[in-house]
Design goal:
Layout lengths: L1 H17 L16 E4 L5 E4 L8 E9 L5 E5 H4 L8 H39 L4 H17 L6
Antiparallel strand pairs: 1-2, 1-3, 3-4
């Protein structure tokens, strides 16, 4: 009876640790556009309402003037097509993406191995085959993921 209580406690702890769902937003919240308006005194501020007749609508893009000051670009200049990014810049970001993907893969594999190992240890405490229950731990995890009880 004591072993049975230990096994239930381990399974309860393992289920809590493994059953955390990873939630990602599917849609962005609707946002109101901001209008960057230059007032008569030369100050550019963001506002929700469209610019009035005495204000000039500016872009949120800032450029550095020869004197070193930053200034907002007028809206008609900001809408000009931007030059395409260089191929070397695109290639430079791909190793970071692949590193992030491998980190995510390792994290998921550790979760799968940890679950299978915990099931195998529980089975060993009940004097069952460690290898058989290790394999069954993978199968159980796959069934739980397919049933959407556990996060992939």
């Amino acid at each position: 009876m004591r072993k049975f209580a230990v096994v239930l406690a381990l399974l309860g702890f393992m289920a809590q640790a493994q059953a955390v769902q990873e939630v990602q937003a599917r849609q962005d919240a609707p946002l109101q556009p901001l209008h960057w308006c230059r007032h008569a005194d030369g100050q550019t501020l963001a506002q929700r309402d469209p610019c009035s007749a005495d204000q000039t609508e500016m872009s949120s893009v800032m450029v550095r003037k020869p004197g070193g000051d930053l200034e907002y670009v007028p809206l008609d200049q900001a809408s000009a097509p931007e030059p395409a990014p260089e191929a070397s810049a695109a290639a430079a970001s791909s190793p970071d993406d692949s590193k992030e993907m491998m980190k995510d893969f390792r994290t998921r594999m550790l979760k799968w191995l940890g679950f299978a190992l915990a099931v195998a240890v529980v089975a060993k405490l009940l004097k069952r085959s460690f290898v058989l229950w290790f394999i069954l731990g993978f199968v159980l995890r796959a069934v739980l993921v397919a049933a959407n009880v556990m996060a992939f």
